[in-house]
Q: What sequence folds into this?
């Protein structure tokens, strides 16, 4: 069966510090991968998606970047965090068969102070 | 532009009462439709989905949803709510053959009173 992991689960970082959040998927090959952000009391905002290794599409201009160094690994990064980067970050994957169903990881709670 | 509207930000019901959460979408073709549930501090779990066929779909935890093309709606229902159903519920639509991208509504927070 397929599983998706995110770490860390929680993170508290000072403004201006770097960021690296990792997401890995097991039990599937060549998935589509997604990073979402959920601000407090808000819905889900799609930040990045990837349909293959090294293929990253950005949905919104921001302070963050994403990379996909391996087929089932998706990394969210920042060189210098802003206060507005605080939120709940969710990684998701889909099988890429056009049915659009996405499966979500447990999330990372990021607090920037 | 494609969009999803969940008009109710917050709903409160008593345990044992029936529930209906509304979802309306704007899409050029018949979309794929999803309902997800999120408990506090957790990821999203798929409740049910509609791709084609029978417009009344059954999901996990006793939930069901009905696709009404004429109303562009996909409302979620449950005949008797349990306290453990308290959570945030998201409706989503998609039909992108290349990326599987989904468009999410802003969510409805369900509170259940004993």
A:
């Amino acid at each position: 069966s397929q599983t998706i992991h995110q770490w860390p689960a929680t993170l508290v970082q000072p403004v201006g510090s770097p960021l690296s959040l990792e997401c890995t998927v097991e039990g599937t090959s060549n998935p589509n991968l997604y990073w979402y952000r959920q601000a407090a009391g808000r819905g889900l905002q799609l930040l990045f998606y990837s349909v293959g290794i090294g293929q990253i599409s950005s949905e919104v201009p921001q302070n963050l970047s994403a990379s996909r160094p391996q087929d089932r690994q998706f990394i969210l990064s920042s060189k210098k965090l802003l206060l507005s980067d605080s939120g709940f970050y969710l990684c998701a994957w889909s099988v890429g068969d056009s049915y659009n169903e996405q499966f979500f990881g447990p999330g990372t709670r990021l607090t920037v102070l | 532009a494609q969009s999803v509207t969940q008009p109710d930000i917050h709903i409160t019901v008593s345990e044992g009462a029936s529930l209906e959460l509304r979802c309306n979408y704007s899409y050029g073709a018949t979309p794929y439709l999803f309902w997800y549930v999120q408990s506090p501090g957790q990821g999203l779990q798929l409740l049910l989905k509609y791709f084609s066929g029978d417009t009344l779909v059954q999901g996990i935890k006793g939930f069901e949803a009905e696709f009404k093309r004429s109303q562009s709606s996909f409302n979620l229902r449950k005949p008797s709510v349990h306290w453990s159903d308290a959570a945030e519920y998201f409706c989503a639509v998609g039909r992108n053959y290349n990326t599987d991208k989904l468009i999410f509504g802003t969510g409805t927070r369900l509170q259940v009173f004993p």
User: Anything to note?
Assistant: Chain A touches chain B through 26 residues (CB under 8 Å). The radius of gyration of chain A is 13 Å.
